[in-house]
User: Fold this.
Amino acid sequence: MAVQFIFGGSGRGKTYFLQHKIMEEAVNNPKKDYIMIVPEQFTMQTQKDMIKISPGHGIMNIDVQSFVRLAFRVFSETGAGNLPVLDDLGKIMILKKVLGQKKDELKYFGRNINKDGYISEIKSFMSELIQYGADEDEIERMIKASEKKPVLKYKLQDMSVAFKSFKEYIEKNYITSEELLSVFADVVSQSELLKGAVICLDGFTGFTPLQYRLLRELIKTAEMVYVTVTADDRESVINKGKNYQLFFMSRKTVHNIRQIASETGVEVLDDIWTGKEISQTRFGESEELEWLERNLFRYPYKRYNKKNEVPDISCHVLKYAEDEVDFVVQKIKGLLVGGCRYRDIAIVAGSLETYGSIIEHSMKKAGIACFVDQKRGVQSSVPVRAIDALLQIIIKDFAYEDVMDYLKSCLSWTSDSQNDILDNYLLATGIRGFKSWNREWNTAYAYRRMTDESKDFANGVVENVRLGVLENLSELYEKTAKGKHTVREYAASLFEFFERQHFYEKLMEFADEYEENENFDMASEYRQLYGMVIEVFEKLVSLMGDEEMSLKEFKDILDVGFSEARIGVIPPGIDQVMAGDMSRTRISNIKYLFLVGANSSNIPKGNGSGGIISESERNFLAENEFELAPTARQQVYTEQFYLYLNLTKPSKHLYITYCDSERDGSVNEPSYIISRINKIFPSVSVKFEERKQSEENAWSDDEGKKYLIAGLRNGDFSDKKWQEIYNCYFDSEENKKTLDNILTAAFFKENKSSISKKIAKSLYPENLRGSTSQLERYAACAFSYFMQYGLKLQERQEHTIEAYDIGNIVHDALDMYTKILLAGNRRWQDVDKKEQEKIAGECVEKAVSLCKDGIMRDTSRNQYMIKRIHNVVNKTIWAISKQMGQGSFDTIESELIFETVGKAKETDEELIKLVGKIDRLDGFSDGSKDYVRVVDYKTGNKELSLSELYYGLQMQLVIYLKASIDKKSKAEKIVVPAGMLYYRIKDPILNEKVTPENFEQKTLESLAMNGLVNGDFPMLEGSDRNLEQNNGVYQPDYVSSVSNIETGKKGQLKKSSGVTNTDCLNELIKFTEKKVVDMSEEILDGKTLVNPYKTNESQPKSACMYCAFRSVCRFDSRLYGNDYRVFEKLSDDDVMRIIHGELSEEE
Assistant:
């Protein structure tokens, strides 16, 4: 029995020497067993290497194993280890169960165990404790040592509960994967396979306490044990050294194995050192890379001053991570042109989480064969999300979101169009609950705006899907929804459901489809998914099959299982670029290495292992001589070692890249490795790569297209490069179609849209009919009008309370209140405040009940909104009563319905019939004349703007005023327009200092109406009697609480006051009538231009701001031909002057 170490630096032939030595011995000793033990992820590559160097391309008496695989081999020989091995998935499930039962005992863990990922953190710490030989007694010692650290003490006490409960649950039924090696160590001496065998340990950077225990037994049993160790021949390997030294882990390994050999009486043979001659290493062709291996992370190091340039090592900085990977892609393309194979290239990422998907996408796009060594979680996969939605349907009793998530999944039987119709219906009605799904639905309210034909079609689809859902889900619902059932019963019910739904066949169809599209990674994933899902169910049944629980408890444990399940994608080909991380990925025999993501945020990785216990707590335990996984500081040194191993992998060139920016604009710093390289190689400077402007990239397929498009658009004929690319495309028959598409893209211009009069006539069969707001929509953008009122597209209705619903309730309540006054022949000011609030309260309650079938009473939030509505309505009625009492006007009508017709000037043909409701019509009479004003209630901050009126954006009040005049003109009296006003419904917050004496007045002033009042006698005084003139002047410094009117120091009306005269109001009416006719003619002529407006104010408004059709029109002001109609802000005087001029020209 003997032990022998094989030493050498990275790339200096340790593995090569060992493999050839063992192969030679195995050929000469065919009856002797040779066992090569390597890390799990290296077994396949090692087997390939051994077969390759074998004279007969076979390895009959050489066995390549990992520790775990060898354990099972010995168990099958000795009969030991007959308990099932519990993997991480099983541990997670059991911990979820036992910790749920012990929740009340857990002082620290208890409040966190339902957080995503927390059970996994507990599992990791428990595995760490087992791996490092800790048992219940050791945990108790940790607790005693932590007396003065209460938080750590609570954590360890909870961990003790978890550890003990877990052990009790699995006792005599399972062993953990960590305990496997302990059981293996106990039976090594019984194994005939190991007795007299030659054992080789290769590729390890260190060992855990449990592994050292196993090694002790192997060393005592085997004939010979070889151990390869990465070390520097200039440093001692006898003592352990300091943990900050590069080869500390190697020296620790040697120290521990020598100690085991000494304690067991096993001879340690003379050390073997490999790679002393550079020609015997991987660096035979690169002096610079050999220099890097000899000096990286060494103290002191030697600078490389032999050449002015270092051609085999380069550092590059790009803007974003995507740019880094694009740079790598271009470099790989260049290497391939030079005769390189894919397998000669590897990529190592500082953060595979960040770069993995980018590498995968970019390589696939570039047509480069690449394998990204990254396991995928199944929890985020489409099929598992479908299972999640299925269980949520039952747990949450057919909630809308869960039903639609399931029906839109890969397991559903419904089509996309069916799903869309059902989705809209459920969203509009808020239907949920198995009982509701079990009775026929009344679709009248949801489909009230549809034509009869559309209504019948949608109703048929919804009913068919409803029946289909019941047919497919009823059995599962009835078996699992109520009460508690065993895990076995839940799993059986779900498995039966999968069988009925042909779950497996559907996944295979998806896999076939992915294969047809050459997406082999996704095809492989879908082929494994069904087995993975069933494995999770089987694991759950085997662990706790007869335990009863609710469906929610079952789903929680199942979710934890899915969160741990991973799909390992096997490399589909031999010749491919390998991409992975620094510690896990096996890279060998490569010529070119790209280290991407060499940023300080990735290298060093920082403290990613803290988990349940913090870094300071981990340090405390280490100081008290409790051995656990490395601390953050120790991990940095470990990472240096892995970095050294990776950077010394290539034999020809090392590329290092990093990015200087994140997508959010934050700055990225380079990793310390950049400065280390620069110190060793002073002539290696960081190259700033302008990816999109480089000539090399311009000739690549994707970048070439972008370069050509930019050149065509800019028309820069001094740049010959894009013209050469154009000629290449033009001369190629294969690329002619591509060139046509590029030319179309480069000179893209949005077509001006319109429809024929014939189509317009079919859309508007008789004449236009609608509200003023519809025409205002047309004035804002013709295309938006066409979408909403021509094609009758609608936004999705939602069974929820929106801002406009609140407005409708307030409007309805005010209308009810007003009609009660009119019915009783009472004026606003005749009702005292107490009675106001009583009547108003009844009106609000009735309006709330009528709103969407009483939805307002569904939630506490809505109940609070009802209280606020009461307050606002009370304040509004109080203010209106005060305003009405200050003048001569009385309310004549509430919610007055009107129709007004717009006719063509020349033919007198009826073009449009405008319909609407006037919120409030006020008036008074002096005997010979009736004076009328219209008031419109607004819940927003609406103000009358004559500038917007001129552009057609705010015609409502003028049209209302015209309609009220027409209605009153049927009497014999002359009807005079007295004003048009907005009343802004609100509960004002007074920003200025108020006193009890002026509080009421200031409140009324803040609630004053906004608009235009006719200043001709007697209408101004009729609006507010405080505006009566005395010797030709008004009361000085007066602020009206009725409308937006103020006077100056000398009693003159301020320019900002909303006062006009009869002539101006009549001109506004006449102009608006003309505007309505002009717009109507354009609509009927088929004008559907995408022509949104935009104001030129400091805070501009535009038609696109809240438009529901932005995704349809594709308007983009950055594209040629897509221009806003800019509306200049006009003063009231300018508007009246322009309108007067236009009307004069008409006459």
Observations:
- The radius of gyration is 41 Å.
